[in-house]
Amino acid sequence: MTRVDAFPWPVRLYGLLGLLGIVVFMTSLIVLHRVNSDIDWLRDFVSNLANEPYGWLFAGGGFVHGLGNLAVSLGLRRALQPERLCVWAVVLLGLAAVGIIVATLFPIDPPGQVRSITGRVHLAAASATFMLELAALFMFSFVFGRQRRWQRHQAVSMALSVTAAIALATFFLAIQVDVAPGLAERTALLVFLVWEIWICFQLIRPGGE
């Protein structure tokens, strides 16, 4: 049996770029959590890493992650058959990627500091990013079910989308009741990253013909 690539090289390249962005971002998070032992996983938001020593690693990792997600959105645009819902899904994922970049360029205010314009921009961008990407996940799940080549992936995508929705709702609730908001944010972020990693592998995976 001769193995062939499921998608042409530009699509696979976009998937690889997306995966690279995720790896860089996750590496920055791991390094920062290790070098800053005073971080409270239960209460401190991930964005607060920008205000810690070596915070530039978080900014750089987030920026590369945003660019990587832009690449993923372009890859999905080429990998899926054009239809209206697909266009909306691609646009929303692209906007979410831009939101990641904006949230990175405008860091959150340090705890206890009066909220600045920069901090307000960060909060708005971060909140919008979560919601935009969640909407994109559900839209892609529906699109997968309508396209023969992707139908077998719909169940996994939908399961991750529902999990992301639950995790995000839990995060927002944790903020309101002030109970472990940092842990809730990390959980929600992890679910979104799992979907992103999964979709990158769908773009770069080889076929089996």
In short:
The protein has 6 helices and no strands.
What does this structure look like?
It contains 6 helices and no strands. It has one domain. The mean pLDDT is 93. The N and C termini lie close together (6 Å). The protein is 73% helix and 0% strand. Helix 1 (9-35) runs antiparallel to helix 2 (55-79). The protein is mainly α.
What labels would you give this structure?
209 residues
Largest sheet: none
Low-confidence stretches: none
In the residues, how many domains can be counted?
1
Tell me the β content. Answer: under 5%
Large-scale geometry: globular
Fold topology:
Elements: H1 9-35, H2 55-79, H3 84-105, H4 117-146, H5 154-177, H6 181-204
